[in-house]
Write a structure and sequence with these properties.
two-stranded antiparallel ribbon, 170 residues, single chain
C-alpha cells in the first residue's frame, strides 16, 4: 500500500492504484490512527465457494468481527451468480447492521438489520417452496434474529456486544 496523490496530497492506494485506506482498523472496522496496531484486514475480491463463504463469515461473526464478515458476504454477492446476489447482499446487510449496533449507531443498526431481514426472509420463502435452505443456512432463523436485535437496539438505545449477539448462520 502506498500513499500517493495527484493533487499534491496523499491518498492511500493499493497495488493496482485503486484508492484504499491503509489506516489500521479495529475489530468493528473503525479506522484507527496510522501506526496503531489494528485487526488484520479481510482481503477483498476473494472468490470462495458458497460453503467456504458461510464457514468464513461464521468464524468472523463468532470472533466479534461482523464488519469483516460483511466483506466476505460482499465478495460472494459480487462474484456469485446474479440469481443469488440478493441473498448475499441481505446477509452482508445483517453483518453491517450488527456492526452499527455494536458501534452504538441505533438508527443505522436497526435499519440495516431490518433491511437484511427482509432480504433473507424473502429467500427463506423461496427455499421453503424449493424444500431446502440454501447452503444449509437457517434463513428464517436469521431474519427472526435480525428483527429481534433491531427491536432490542431501538428499545435500549445501547451498543450491543457483537460477539455475544452474533447469529448462527446454520
Amino acid at each position: 500500500m502506498e500513499r500517493l496523490g495527484s493533487t499534491g496530497g496523499t491518498r492511500d492506494r493499493d497495488g493496482a492504484g485503486r484508492a484504499r485506506s491503509a489506516r489500521p482498523r479495529d475489530g468493528l472496522g473503525r479506522p484507527l490512527p496510522y501506526g496503531t496496531a489494528g485487526v488484520e484486514r479481510q482481503p477483498e475480491g476473494v472468490v470462495r465457494t458458497p460453503a467456504e463463504t458461510v464457514v468464513e463469515a461464521q468464524a468472523l461473526l463468532d470472533a466479534g468481527k461482523p464488519f469483516h464478515a460483511h466483506e466476505v458476504f460482499e465478495d460472494a454477492w459480487k462474484s456469485g451468480p446474479e440469481s443469488e446476489r440478493a441473498l448475499w447482499r441481505g446477509l452482508a446487510q445483517l453483518a453491517v447492521g450488527l456492526t452499527h449496533a455494536a458501534r452504538g449507531n441505533v438508527t443505522g443498526g436497526a435499519r440495516l438489520l431490518r433491511r437484511g431481514a427482509g432480504a433473507v426472509a424473502e429467500w427463506a420463502e423461496k427455499a421453503e417452496r424449493a424444500a431446502g435452505e440454501p447452503y444449509g443456512m437457517d434463513l428464517a432463523g436469521l431474519a427472526g434474529w435480525a428483527r429481534e436485535l433491531a427491536d432490542t437496539v431501538e428499545r435500549t438505545g445501547a451498543a450491543v456486544d457483537a460477539r455475544a449477539r452474533a447469529p448462527r448462520l446454520r
